[in-house]
Design goal:
This protein is of the alpha+beta class. The chain contains 16 helices and twelve strands. It has a domain of about 220 residues. The strands form four sheets. Strands 1, 4, 5 and 6 form a four-stranded mixed sheet that branches. Strand 7 and strand 8 form a beta hairpin.
Length: about 375
């Protein structure tokens, strides 16, 4: 993508003119951002320094400003998000290493806490071993969601900003000193009614996972109405929750979910193709469901069992978010050794997992607040 790499964490629109990835893709826009990153410049100065016409620069600036990525004043233009130069990144590397080691050490020293949470959540009773769930509990809840929460509380992560296209953190990196795609733990989460569908881990070389919520993104890309996709996903959610509670025949599943036999059978065939369910006479689940009680217990695990020890290690350290400047240290390197020891995504029982009924349980470890590495708009951009 030209001279710079960009990362968005949060949620943004599918409208191209407001998508930060789309707007910053042009090399001409990247040259402007790189120039005004160190010092404010007015339109004539930008055009002169870049050797292009004022009209060309103005078109790019208007596009950037419309998306909320550039701010203007009487003194000139400046980026409205953090851009890390190569020198910035070199200075950040030791800090990132220190954060990573501290958090990973805290996780390694607290695996008994993780196992206790696994036992309390009843995953074993549903047929999911600790090896099945370790990547989800450690990789997603502790390192990703918990890592973001930890960085935010410790002053290393600025909150997302509301922009015309959505609420997110957007960051630019000069050059490719950081291998973002190679180190990022990609997660997709989307809420449909009372359910959140989640997938986590490395992405295929091309396209997206054959899992949810990516399948819903594909349906949107194909032009299926929003309301229709929402209804289908909610029906799939009811099926997955029912099967997580126990094996059922097609007729029993139809009765418990209120779906017609034909409708339930059609959904089951899709879920079977995507490895969420299996059929051995009756239907059973291959996908863990994190119900509200389990989600609350996992939140306690992260907040009381992991983060306090990590905070003690980092207490008193410098924060790149000091002074009110928007800065972003994603957990791209948090606990990479721990994830590697857990076998990466290979131990997942299926293509992802599923967060069941939200109910009234709203622990601080909330998907909607933390945001994800890739949004629905970003996924569609990659297709």
């Amino acid at each position: 993508m030209g001279q710079m790499q960009f990362v968005m964490c949060g949620s943004c629109t599918m409208e191209e003119e407001l998508s930060p990835y789309t707007v910053t893709k042009a090399e001409s826009c990247q040259r402007i951002l790189k120039l005004i990153n160190g010092e404010r410049y007015r339109l004539p100065e930008i055009a002169s320094r870049l050797g292009v016409s004022e009209e060309t620069v103005l078109d790019d600036l208007r596009a950037l400003e419309k998306a909320g990525l550039v701010e203007s004043s009487a003194r000139g233009y400046s980026p409205a998000f953090a851009i890390f130069t190569r020198d910035d990144q070199k200075r950040l590397q030791p800090l990132i290493g220190r954060i990573s080691r501290a958090y990973e050490h805290a996780v390694e020293q607290s695996m008994d806490v993780v196992r206790a949470a696994y036992d309390d959540c009843g995953f074993a009773d549903r047929g999911f071993s600790f090896a099945d769930m370790a990547y989800i509990l450690v990789g997603a809840y502790i390192l990703d969601y918990g890592g973001l929460d930890f960085l935010l509380r410790s002053g290393f992560l600025a909150p997302a900003r509301q922009r015309p296209g959505g609420r997110y953190v957007f960051v630019g990196y000069e050059g490719k000193l950081f291998n973002l795609r190679g180190s990022w733990m990609f997660g997709h989460n989307y809420r449909f009614g009372p359910f959140i569908f989640s997938g986590h881990g490395e992405l295929p070389a091309e396209g997206g996972r054959k899992a949810f919520p990516e399948q819903a993104y594909r349906w949107w890309a194909e032009g299926r109405p929003e309301a229709e996709v929402k209804q289908v996903m909610e029906e799939l959610g009811h099926i997955l929750v029912a099967l997580y509670q126990g094996t059922r025949t097609l007729q029993a599943l139809s009765q418990s979910t209120g779906l017609s036999v034909n409708g339930a059978e059609e959904h089951l065939q899709l879920l079977q193709e995507l490895s969420y369910v299996r059929k051995n006479g009756a239907w059973s689940s291959r996908c863990p469901v994190v119900v509200p009680e389990a989600r609350a217990r996992i939140g306690v695990m992260v907040e009381e069992g992991i983060q306090p020890s990590a905070s003690r290690v980092l207490r008193g350290g410098p924060s790149p978010a000091d002074g009110g400047e928007e800065a972003f240290l994603s957990p791209v390197t948090l606990g990479r050794g721990t994830i590697r020891d857990l076998g990466g995504t290979k131990r997942l029982p299926g293509p992802g997992w599923f967060v069941g009924h939200i109910g009234t349980v709203q622990p601080r470890l909330a998907f909607s607040r933390l945001g994800k590495a890739q949004s629905r708009a970003d996924y569609l951009r990659r297709m």
